[in-house]
């Protein structure tokens, strides 16, 4: 993806920038290709770069001492990686893992902070995104505690589908169990239930969304809550 394409279809957090601000922002960034499984941040590490996904997808993951992992949020082209810099926090508190390869804008943390100081529109957009991200993390915590695996899986697939291009999601049961914080057998049962209803297809690490409206019905209300949060955030960013 070249610079011209990025300027015409940027990360949605950058929609509120003027054409001149966006051009400067892209000029100060590198366009990078991120691969599935690539680690962008580790807990305790200093944040050297921020990432603005264009057509890739990243997971924010908490890992316990036992080695158990749980995805608490995901970031697509509606957000950014490294948002804690907005609060003056220079170290990552969480692991960030690429779960959908693609292109992103990468900027040094120092350059990003400079742009924040020069652009009130960018600062306002990042603040609104930070609030939406905190709400999503809280919603995910409640969902993991109160809801069964099948509706949680449907929600997770919908959130991933929203942030990727096309209906095919390259996901293994092992990866899904890690992201949902449940046993692999539980994911297998839930995926088979969704497949038996014709909502998805699953074959060797590839999930295909066949019936999006049906998948929304199978999901818990947390998906709707998430979507409303981000729709409000992006609307205000775009028109503020």
Question: Can you give me a brief rundown of this structure?
Answer:
Residues 152-217 form the HTH crp-type domain. The chain is α+β, with helices and mostly antiparallel strands and 240 residues long.
When the domains are counted, the total is 2
Residue ranges: pLDDT <50 for 5 or more in a row?
none
Largest sheet: 4 strands, antiparallel
Q: What is the H-and-E element order?
A: HHEEEEEEEHHHEHHEEHH
Instruction: State the helical fraction.
Output: 40-55%
What's the total count of β strands? 10
What does this 3D model show about the protein?
By secondary structure, the protein is α+β, with helices and mostly antiparallel strands. It folds into two domains: 3-120, Jelly Rolls, CATH 2.60.120; 148-219, Arc Repressor Mutant, subunit A. Helix content is 47%, strand content 21%. The protein has nine helices and ten strands. The protein has helices at residues 3-8, 19-27, 109-118, 120-146, 149-162, 173-180, 184-196, 212-218, 222-239, and strands at 30-34, 39-41, 49-53, 57-63, 69-75, 95-100, 102-108, 168-170, 200-203, 206-209. The strands form three sheets. Strands 2-6-4-5 form a four-stranded antiparallel sheet. A hairpin with a 2-residue loop joins strand 9 (200-203) and strand 10. The protein starts with a helix and ends with a helix. The model has no long low-confidence stretch (mean pLDDT 89).
Key structural traits:
240 residues; alpha+beta; Jelly Rolls; Arc Repressor Mutant, subunit A; 2 domains; three-stranded antiparallel β-sheet; globular
């Amino acid at each position: 993806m070249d610079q011209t394409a990025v300027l015409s279809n940027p990360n949605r957090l950058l929609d509120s920038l003027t054409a001149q601000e966006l051009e400067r922002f892209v000029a100060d960034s590198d366009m990078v290709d991120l691969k599935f499984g690539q680690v962008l941040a580790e807990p305790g590490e200093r944040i050297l770069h921020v990432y603005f996904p264009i057509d890739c997808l990243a997971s924010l993951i908490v890992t316990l001492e036992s080695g158990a992992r749980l995805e608490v949020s995901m970031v697509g082209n509606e957000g950014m990686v490294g948002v804690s810099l907005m609060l003056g926090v220079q170290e990552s508190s969480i692991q960030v893992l690429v779960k959908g390869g693609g292109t992103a804008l990468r900027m040094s943390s120092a350059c990003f902070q400079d742009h924040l100081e020069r652009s009130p529109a960018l600062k306002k957009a990042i603040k609104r995104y930070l609030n939406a991200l905190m709400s999503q993390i809280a919603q995910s915590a409640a969902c993991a505690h109160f809801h069964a695996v099948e509706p949680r899986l449907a929600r997770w697939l919908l959130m991933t589908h929203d942030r990727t291009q096309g209906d095919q999601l390259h996901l293994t049961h092992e990866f899904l169990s890690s992201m949902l914080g449940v046993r692999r057998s539980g994911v297998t049962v839930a995926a088979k239930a969704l497949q038996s209803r014709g909502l998805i297809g699953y074959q060797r690490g590839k999930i295909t969304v066949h019936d999006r409206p049906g998948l929304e019905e199978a999901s818990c209300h947390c998906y709707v809550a998430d979507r409303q949060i981000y729709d409000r955030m992006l609307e205000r960013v775009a028109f503020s």
